[in-house]
């Protein structure tokens, strides 16, 4: 028991020592305490794990209960109480007061040990459950802390995310979420559609759970059915939470399609039900028992198979042994004890006496003894089947076989063999003696013909020719020519693939005595008939001439008739044949009578009282000397049980073979070879079809060894399978096989006799999974680095902005205030650019980025990029060289986005080149494409980093990235934008310096020059402007800026105020925020547009949402324009100017 010790609290020293000795004799450690004080000291020192005491020391009002409650974690430790005989009520009181087990005196040592061990096991289980729950709670806490970092993992796990604005009931959800409800990426999916798709039987449950979560602003979790647009039903698991963010009540959560899991659980339950049905149908009993406590658990079929009286169950092995026939008990006990010692399997047949009716039945039992790690002991599992009928059939078959052998010996049969190719006939000594020919002398067909009596030769010739022509048996009786002897000859031909006769084997018998003693033969036949009936086999005789049939009493019983009830007619016999077998049975009789084919058949009959039985019957036609049939005699036996057993075996075999052939995992059986006690090799005994796909090895491995197939395989595989073969302990593991370059998840267990060293292996190729897990770990690390750098990059501009605000607030010097404003504008531009890059990468990854393509000159793109990157290049003291083609190059591109590609590459070169370095940008025309390379003489890129340089969050050196402000998204953005323009980008580095090359398609010819209108700007007129934003600071700061520009401005802080203010103020322009409480910007715009006076009002949506779908929503609501926060003054002036020009 390891560190587990039992504390014994007994004031009487003698009783305590006796108890201690009993416990230690059973392998337990015991400490005797004379009073509760010494007991508590032992507990405080951590000395015990269970307590054994007397009834008088426990219960209400006793100091022991209070003492234990003050000693956590012993407040719920197991307590075993020795009580006086008949103290049931007292035991109930003790159990209610404490975690106690009552044992009535007198107490047997074995029972006491069993109770104490059970208490210790219960405590270990409770502690394991508590530790497991604590670990689960810690894991749940860790999971909650990292929820914001799991977006990539959610997508990888096909888990969708969603958010519902409870004010507008507008739902946004991920593509994975849409997929869980049968929608495609980009397909609109609203909350109303989600609710309408809930299965009608789950609607009430869904509404109740969601409404409850909203009412208490708490979490919820639900599994329900949903109908997809294609009318298929799926199960989803949804978990969500109702929260308030920035004044908005949101219902957010995740969803997961669990249809596969639900179906798998249903399949598992169906499998268990089929197993129970199979046990009942096969009259088998499944059992389990432990030698330590001799407790026995049996399946519900035990009552029927073992003949247990009503209300009586089997709970102990001693009850089971009491059913075993007294003469078989010793052998049974020796068998299972041997299995326990070997930790192996056993197979035994024994007799059992059924208590309900006293019948003795035969039981076939198979069991296995296994080491039970939690208990430290052995547990036996197995099945027992009633094989009484099979035993009876086997005994009858042995008896009949022995009688047949004796009959052949007594009949004096001789054997012969004829080779048609050489015309050589070989006969046995008995046949030579019988026919009067020299032993070993030459024989041929002609010599054999001359031995036959002249009157019988023609008949014998026709019989032989007919047998060859029909490939049938040769069977004839004839007289010998030169001696008064009758013989019966029987032969069977052997034919080659083309149907030619190659050999004939046969027997010959002297039947002279039979002819002379016909009466004696009849008496012998009668005795044989009686013997067959005594063995459960009936005999019959059919007089073919008169048509009368005679049945023995046993055959009457088969047909459900009393002896003598059968009327002896063929019509009555055929009327009891099963309709599906009647024609076949009649044909067998006809073939035997007319074609002399042996009559041997199995068919079904319908007895007189109903039901169904399988009958096996065989017979022979007796003919006269001229070959005319006289009568037919035979034997019949009931083979119903055998046929049912055979059918069950065939079904079981088909199921196993179907599972074996169709299972997705690889499966094989190997035989391990040992040398000097160590596994040296193993060969393949059986492979399933999936073996090749999972292992990559040829299915021709059957019979070959693994060392032949995979030289250099690690010793781990031999040691592991050798250990399973030697110990019988199954194992489950994941390991890499270097020669195969694959990871495998393996479950291995031993099969059959341990001496054969056969191991079954169920395995799967998990190489992709292991690679994906490693990639996920790498991505998770990159994500953490990215989040840390992003936080750093977002904080960096905040410090100078705050400092600039202090300068503006406290300094009266105009120059200082202007410098601070310029600095703050730069830092704000940096933050906006950073956020824009993040949004751009996200849009590209979700295919949401839209390019505004037009014909642009490459020189304009390069000029714009150089202009953007020039400050960074000049600040680092670099020299920039620009080389462009000698003739104009036009591209079909978005000038802003394409310039962003080259400005990012130029900025990268400026960052990663030592001060005073050189940067080159060179464009070369190659037919229909142009290649633009950005090269520097900076620090370069390690070769190992080149394959992933364009991946999201990819960073060459984290220390450098931190010092230069790199987030690892710039090159990902470059790659995405380049590919959207139909181009490619590559990176190269030879240690020092790096080169990035962008290749783009060029336009073939240039269209006529067209004059573009200059960008419109806001004219110098003063306008009445209404600013609407629930962020008061944002609304007031924008108002102040517009007032500085000479406009008349008013503000409103929600949608309702906006409608009222517009009605009263009648502004020229309304800058409308979208997401606001009480009434959102869309609805406010709709109410304003419903007024006649709003026709000349310009309404511009001002929001943080900038996707194309958001722009569409604002336009549908009635907005004239859409600007994304933070809005710059030039953008605002440009849009107002454009709207003003359009109005003119």
TrEMBL record:
It comes from the Bacteria. It is a multi-pass membrane protein. Its EC number is 2.7.13.3. This is histidine kinase. The keyword Mitochondrion does not apply. The modification 4-aspartylphosphate is found at residue 1073. GO terms for cellular component: plasma membrane. PANTHER family: PAC DOMAIN-CONTAINING PROTEIN, PHYTOCHROME-LIKE PROTEIN CPH1. One of its GO terms (molecular function) is phosphorelay sensor kinase activity. Transmembrane segments: none annotated. Keywords: Cell inner membrane, Cell membrane, Kinase, Membrane, Nucleotide-binding, Phosphoprotein, Repeat, Transferase, Transmembrane, Transmembrane helix, Two-component regulatory system. It is found in: Cell inner membrane. Residues 524-596 form the PAS domain. Residues 346-399, 470-523, 599-651 form the PAC domain. It catalyses: ATP + protein L-histidine = ADP + protein N-phospho-L-histidine. It comes from Gemmata massiliana. The lineage of its organism: Bacteria, Pseudomonadati, Planctomycetota, Planctomycetia, Gemmatales. Its main location: membrane. Residues 789-1004 form the Histidine kinase domain. It holds the Pfam family HisKA. Residues 1024-1140 form the Response regulatory domain.
């Amino acid at each position: 028991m390891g560190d587990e010790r039992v504390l014994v609290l007994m004031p009487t020293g003698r009783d305590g020592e006796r108890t201690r000795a009993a416990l230690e004799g059973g392998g337990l450690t015991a400490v005797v305490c004379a009073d509760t004080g010494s007991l508590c000291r032992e507990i405080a020192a951590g000395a015990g794990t269970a307590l054994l005491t007397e009834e008088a020391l426990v219960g209400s009002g006793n100091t022991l209960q209070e003492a234990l409650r003050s000693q956590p974690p012993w407040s719920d430790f197991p307590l075993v109480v020795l009580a006086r005989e008949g103290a049931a009520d007292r035991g109930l009181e003790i159990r209610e007061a404490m975690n106690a087990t009552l044992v009535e005196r007198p107490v047997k040592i074995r029972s006491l040990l069993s109770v104490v061990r059970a208490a210790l096991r219960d405590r270990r289980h409770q502690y394991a459950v508590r530790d497991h729950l604590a670990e689960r709670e810690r894991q749940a806490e860790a999971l909650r802390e990292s929820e914001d970092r799991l977006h990539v993992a959610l997508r990888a796990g096909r888990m969708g995310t969603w958010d519902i604005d409870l004010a507008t009931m507008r739902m946004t959800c991920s593509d994975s979420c849409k997929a869980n409800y049968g929608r495609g990426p980009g397909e609109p999916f609203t909350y109303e559609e989600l609710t309408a798709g809930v299965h009608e039987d789950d609607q009430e449950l869904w509404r109740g759970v969601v409404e409850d979560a909203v009412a208490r602003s708490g979490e919820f979790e639900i599994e329900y059915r949903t109908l997809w647009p294609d009318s298929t039903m799926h199960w989803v698991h949804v978990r969500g939470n109702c929260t308030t963010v920035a004044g908005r009540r949101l219902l957010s959560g995740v969803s997961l399609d669990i249809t596969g899991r639900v179906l798998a659980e249903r399949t598992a339950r169906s499998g268990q039900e089929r197993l129970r049905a199979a046990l009942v149908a096969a009259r088998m009993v499944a059992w389990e028992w432990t030698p330590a406590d001799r407790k026995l658990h049996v399946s519900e079929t035990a009552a029927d198979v073992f003949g247990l009286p009503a209300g009586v169950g089997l709970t102990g092995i001693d009850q089971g042994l009491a059913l075993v026939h007294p003469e078989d008990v010793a052998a049974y006990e020796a068998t299972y004890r041997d299995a326990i010692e070997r930790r192996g399997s056993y197979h035994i047949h024994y007799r059992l006496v059924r208590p309900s009716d006293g019948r003795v039945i035969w039981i076939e039992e198979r069991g296995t003894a296994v080491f039970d790690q939690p208990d430290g002991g052995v547990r036996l599992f197995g099945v027992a089947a009633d094989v009484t009928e099979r035993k009876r059939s086997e005994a009858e078959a042995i008896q009949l076989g022995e009688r047949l052998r004796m009959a052949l010996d007594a009949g004096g049969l001789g054997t012969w063999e004829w080779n048609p190719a050489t015309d050589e006939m070989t006969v046995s000594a008995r046949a030579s003696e019988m026919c009067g020919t020299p032993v070993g002398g030459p024989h041929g067909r002609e010599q054999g013909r001359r031995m036959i009596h002249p009157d019988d030769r023609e008949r014998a010739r026709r019989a032989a020719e007919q047998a060859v022509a029909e490939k049938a048996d040769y069977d004839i009786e004839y007289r010998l020519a030169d001696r008064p002897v009758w013989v019966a000859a029987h032969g069977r031909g052997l034919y080659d693939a083309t149907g030619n006769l190659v050999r004939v084997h046969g027997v010959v018998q002297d039947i002279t005595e039979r002819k002379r003693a016909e009466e004696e033969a009849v008496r012998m036949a009668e005795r044989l008939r009686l013997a067959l009936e005594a063995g459960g086999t009936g005999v019959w005789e059919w007089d073919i001439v008169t048509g009368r049939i005679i049945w023995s009493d046993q055959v009457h019983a088969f047909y459900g008739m009393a002896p003598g009830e059968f009327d002896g007619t063929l019509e009555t016999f055929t009327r009891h044949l099963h309709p599906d077998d009647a024609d076949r049975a009649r044909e067998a009789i006809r073939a035997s009578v007319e074609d002399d084919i042996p009559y041997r058949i199995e068919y079904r009959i319908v007895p007189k009282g109903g039901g169904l039985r399988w009958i096996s019957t065989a017979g022979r036609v007796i003919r006269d000397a001229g070959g005319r049939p006289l009568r037919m005699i035979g034997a019949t036996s009931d083979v119903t049980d055998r046929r049912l057993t055979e059918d069950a075996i065939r079904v079981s075999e088909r199921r196993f073979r179907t599972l074996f052939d169709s299972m997705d995992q690889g499966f094989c059986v190997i035989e391990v070879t040992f040398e000097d006690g160590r596994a040296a090799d193993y060969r393949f005994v059986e492979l399933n079809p999936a073996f090749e796909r999972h292992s990559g090895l040829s299915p021709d491995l059957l019979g070959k060894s693994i060392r032949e197939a995979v030289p250099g395989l690690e010793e781990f595989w031999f040691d592991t399978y050798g250990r399973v073969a030697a110990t019988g302990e199954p194992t489950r593991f994941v390991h890499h096989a270097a020669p195969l370059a694959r990871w495998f998840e393996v479950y291995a267990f031993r099969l059959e006799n341990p001496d054969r060293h056969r191991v079954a292996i169920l395995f799967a190729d998990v190489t992709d999974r292991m690679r994906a897990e490693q990639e996920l770990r790498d991505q998770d690390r990159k994500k953490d680095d990215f989040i840390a750098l992003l936080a750093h990059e977002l904080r960096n501009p905040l410090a100078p902005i705050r400092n600039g605000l202090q300068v503006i607030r406290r300094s009266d010097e105009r120059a200082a205030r202007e410098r601070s404003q310029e600095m703050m504008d730069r830092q704000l531009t940096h933050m906006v650019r950073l956020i824009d890059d993040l949004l751009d990468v996200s849009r590209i990854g979700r295919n949401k980025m839209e390019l505004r393509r037009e014909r642009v000159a490459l020189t304009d793109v390069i000029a714009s990029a150089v202009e953007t990157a020039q400050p960074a290049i000049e600040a680092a003291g670099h020299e920039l060289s620009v080389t462009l083609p000698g003739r104009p190059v036009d591209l079909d591109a978005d000038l802003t986005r394409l310039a962003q590609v080259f400005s990012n590459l130029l900025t990268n070169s400026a960052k990663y080149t030592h001060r005073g370095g050189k940067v080159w940008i060179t464009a070369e025309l190659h037919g229909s494409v142009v290649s633009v390379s950005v090269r520097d003489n900076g620090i370069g890129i390690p070769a190992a980093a080149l394959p992933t340089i364009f991946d999201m969050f990819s960073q060459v050196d984290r220390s450098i990235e931190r010092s230069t402000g790199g987030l690892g998204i710039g090159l990902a953005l470059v790659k995405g934008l380049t590919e959207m323009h139909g181009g490619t980008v590559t990176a190269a580095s030879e240690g020092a310096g790096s080169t990035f090359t962008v290749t783009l398609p060029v336009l073939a010819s240039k269209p006529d020059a067209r004059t573009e209108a200059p960008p419109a700007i806001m004219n110098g007129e003063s306008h009445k402007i209404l600013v609407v934003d629930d962020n008061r600071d944002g609304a007031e700061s924008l108002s102040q800026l517009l007032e500085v520009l000479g406009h008349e401005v008013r503000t409103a802080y929600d949608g309702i105020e906006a409608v009222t203010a517009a009605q009263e103020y009648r502004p020229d322009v309304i800058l409308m925020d979208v997401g606001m409480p009480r009434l959102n910007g869309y609805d406010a715009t709709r109410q304003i547009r419903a007024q006649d006076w709003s026709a000349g009002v310009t309404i511009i949506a001002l929001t943080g949402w900038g996707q194309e779908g958001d722009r569409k929503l604002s336009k549908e609501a009635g907005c004239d324009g859409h600007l994304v926060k933070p809005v710059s003054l030039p953008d605002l002036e440009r849009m107002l100017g454009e709207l003003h020009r359009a109005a003119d």
